[in-house]
Records
---
Amino acid sequence: MPRRILIVIGHPDPSPDRLCRALASAYAEGAEGAGHAVRKIDLALLAFPMLRTMQEFEHGTLPDNLKEPAEAVAWAEHVVFVFPLWLGTMPAMLKAFLEQIMRPGTAFAYPEKDEGFAKSLLRGRSARLVVTMGMPTPIYRIWFLSHGIAGMRRGILNFVGIRPVRETLFGMVANASETKRASWLKQMQRLGERAA
């Protein structure tokens, strides 16, 4: 059954040569070829402010150029985040984007009278985190316990109701052969075909 898929490219560098862009394009190609509806957001092409206070987070207005991306998140049944691992986690631009988009009233609601837990408003959606990194992926998983990805999954996506959240990690990307990169692109295309 066709699904509505949003691909968020979280690499801050707009260079078309970035592996993240190739991975996102391969996923989109596979998904569109299988009949899924696909939208893309490339954060490197957006300029938006960082939130600096709780007041801005809770009561500030969404910048005009983020209204369409926010609508795309609401539209999507499956969200694919493609980004490089920087200092063990997502780049600051992706975090700033999530802080803007995942606001109270849009992604979650505070409990009434300070009782209970926040209400997740994005239930019924799934996600995939596609992460490139310089280190071997087993080192990130075992030694670093995937801490940056785990924080994104539990602290942001699960909190607003997005689950399951699956991961695809590509390690040692700087020295990867063309054959290896081609296999990664094929893997992404297959994931797109399945909307996984």
---
Amino acid sequence: MDMEQERRRLTADDWAAAALTAIGAGGLAAVAIEPLAARLGTTKGSFYGHFSNREALVEAALSLWEKQFTEAYIATMATEPDPMARLRMLFTRIIGNAGQDALAVNVLASADHRLVAPVVSRVEQRRIDYSFALFEEIGFPPTVAAQRAMLGYTAYVGHSQLATRLPGVLPLKDADQLTRYIDSVLNLLLHDAPGPTAPV
């Protein structure tokens, strides 16, 4: 395949995915057109066939991050009818993957950037709202559900930071330790849960 064929084959999504990988590896500053073109085996001409400038690429990458790591996560749990099971699925996935979550840490590190700020704000609110709905469905009154949702989200953010930056701090060496850790987090979040879904 010659260079011209490669340029035609690459899509805007390919560029966005490459930019997202770059953010995970080196933060927002790592999104640079020429190195990405080299990584994709193409030239800057391919880039300009899809995007007018670097900012447009960053916006596309952040949109992809939002879809893959928030909306897709939520969608995978939609078929589970039990809110307690959905909460466990959520925490198992986000805590289990936290050590590979440099992308989220790097996005949050740029949360004051004018392109990043609105996306981070929207993503965080969506995640907190989803957790709030789970706690309400479990049976907590709205005020308590809001508190538990915020507590759960801040626990996730802190865990993600530690798992990425200081992995040796967390005592999660194997699957059994991970399961016990998730159990302890859920037991705290579900303390005094009403009804038959209360943890034992």
